[in-house]
């Protein structure tokens, strides 16, 4: 399984947790059982999920800061979780270039989001990456 598939699975786990009101372990088990996920990919997927959940307030603050006139709660849950994963990678996974995280987020938004989701995700992440480390120190 590629990292893109791990990201996709992580986004689905986060979506299930948010909308299904289920705990992280049950959501992880469900998604792992639904997909043919290799052991090596599970570790990356779990790191993304647990990292996003650990830093969700910080990630949401960044999304709010750069989502001009969009309240977080009004955003699509898919878009919101795609951006959370990308921002987590940009802040906490130094081995992954920000451009890769943004590109992967855009591809996920094209696949799972609405017609304009990829533009929305790209715009917010593109704005955020320019100021990310400065803004992160403020929160």
Q: Would you mind describing this structure in some detail?
A:
The chain is mostly helical and 139 residues long. The protein contains seven helices and no strands. α1 crosses α3 and α3 packs across α5 (77-92). The longest helix has 22 residues, at 117-138. The N and C termini lie far apart (35 Å). The mean pLDDT is 90.
Strand content: under 5%
The CATH topology: N-utilizing Substance Protein B Homolog, Chain A
Number of domains: 1
Low-confidence stretches: none
Cα separation of the termini: 35 Å
C-alpha Rg (nearest Å) = 14 Å
Structural class: mainly alpha
**General shape:** globular
CATH class: Mainly Alpha
Mean pLDDT level: 90
Query: CATH homologous superfamily - what is it?
Result: NusB-like
CATH architecture: Orthogonal Bundle
Count the beta strands: 0
Short description:
Helix content is 78%, strand content 0%. It has 7 helices and no strands.
List the topology elements.
Layout: H1 3-20, H2 24-34, H3 39-54, H4 56-66, H5 77-92, H6 98-112, H7 117-138
Helix pairs in contact: 1-2, 1-3, 1-5, 3-5, 4-5, 4-7, 5-6, 5-7, 6-7
List keywords for this structure.
139 residues, mainly alpha, N-utilizing Substance Protein B Homolog, Chain A, 7 helices
């Amino acid at each position: 399984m590629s990292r893109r598939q791990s990201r996709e699975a992580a986004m689905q786990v986060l979506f299930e947790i948010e909308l299904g009101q289920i705990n992280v372990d049950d959501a992880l088990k469900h998604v792992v059982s639904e997909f043919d996920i290799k052991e090596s990919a599970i570790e990356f997927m779990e790191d993304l999920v647990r990292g996003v959940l650990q830093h969700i307030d910080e990630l949401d603050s960044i999304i709010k800061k750069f989502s001009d006139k969009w309240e977080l709660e009004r955003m699509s849950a898919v878009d919101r979780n795609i951006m959370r994963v990308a921002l987590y990678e940009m802040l906490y996974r130094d081995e992954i270039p920000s451009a890769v995280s943004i590109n992967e987020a855009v591809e996920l938004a094209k696949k799972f989001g609405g017609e304009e989701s990829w533009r929305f995700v790209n715009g917010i992440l593109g704005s955020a990456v320019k100021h990310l480390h400065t803004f992160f120190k403020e929160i």
